Amino acid sequence: ERLIARLAGVDSSVLITGESGVGKEVVATLLHHNSRRANKPFIRVNCAALPQNLVESELFGHEKGAFTGATGRHIGRFEQANTGSIFLDEIAEIPPETQVKLLRVLQEQVVDRVGGSEPVPLDVRIVAATQVDLDEAVKEGRFRSDLYWRLNVINVHIPPLRDRTEDILFLARMFVERHASEMGLPAKRLSAEAEARLLSMPFPGNVRELRNILERAVALSDAPRIMAQDLMSLDEDQEDLSVHHTLKESVESAERQAIHQALVQTGWAIGQAADDLGISRKSLWEKMKRYGIKKE
Questions:
Q1: Which of 213-217, 226-230, 259-263 is the least confident region?
Q2: 8 Å CB contact between 217 and 231
Q3: pTM of the model
Q4: Rounded to whole angstroms, how far apart are CA atoms 112 and 105?
Q5: Cα–Cα nearest to 20, from 90, 86, 87
Q6: In whole angstroms, what is the distance from residue 175 CA to residue 210 CA?
Q7: Using an 8 Å Cβ cutoff, are 61 and 75 in contact?
């Protein structure tokens, strides 16, 4: 957070490095939304997913007739990002011949459409990311050294989530808010027990795993508070599904467990348990009847 705040007024190119799943796109998005370009376009490009024969057309655009099948002018990703930011993920996958043209974009802030005769002026902030050691790629001749230094004006290395537990709750709260909004659901928040569980999880899948766990929890929870039992890692989820063969059974099992836990914690006080679960007393009574939950 502090680094992103320091870079808020900076337009220099940023190279984000770190292993797979650490949240490079999350950081790139935060960099854009905390910059002076926040209300301008933010274009994301996965360089590894670009078709090899269309890389330059996708990035820089093309004019009508530039090649077979070019039936009209195509505006590339850089022009789409004009006045805003472009995020080039997996930058190491850019072919050598395209690296030369990308270098020109950085040096001169212009883009040459394929088949075009005049360069198009640009005002774009470039954020790139890679899990590849670009120092080694340069030594091996797979990546241009001049492009590397142009991209690496500011380096942001993201350690794995297991080494920065102080970021877990910040990211988790952000993901809960985002997923609830995207799904059109009422606002949700994490319970203290859920936050404690998140802090104790190993997250071998890094931020990507954290995001997936919370997306699933938001989708399946029908209460305003996400409880600890709503948070299942991939391994736990697979184990649970091996016992409960359908999604409906898995959801019912988690709901039954949450209701029973709330009742035990409140001394079987129906009103308090319903409040803690974020449901009405009537709804709680109905669920207790459905699941056969009785006072012990």
A1: 259-263
A2: yes
A3: 0.68
A4: 8
A5: 90
A6: 9
A7: yes
Cα–Cα distance for residue pair 1/8, rounded to 1 Å = 11
Distance CA 155, CA 26 (A): 15
Burial of 244 (0-12, 13-18, 19+ CB in 10 A): middle
Cα distance between residue 267 and residue 208, in whole Å:
38
Q: Which of 170, 238, 182 is nearest to 210 (CA)?
A: 170
DSSP E strands, 102-198? 110-111, 120-121, 125-130, 154-157, 189-190
From the centroid of its chain, how far is CA 238?
Answer: 23
Phi first, then psi: what are they for 133, rounded to 5°? Answer: -75, 100
Residue whose tokens read 């190119």: 13
Cα separation, 98 vs 103, whole angstroms = 9
| pLDDT (tens digit per residue) in 248-265 | 566 677 778 788 888 888
- Which amino acid is present at 99? Q
Q: In whole angstroms, give the CA distance from residue 294 to residue 263.
A: 10
Instruction: Note the pLDDT tens digit of each residue in 173-187.
Output: 999 999 999 888 889
Q: Is 230 exposed, middle or buried (0-12, 13-18, 19+ CB in 10 A)?
A: buried
Given the structure tokens 């590894």, which residue do they identify?
48
pLDDT for residue 81 is more than 70: yes
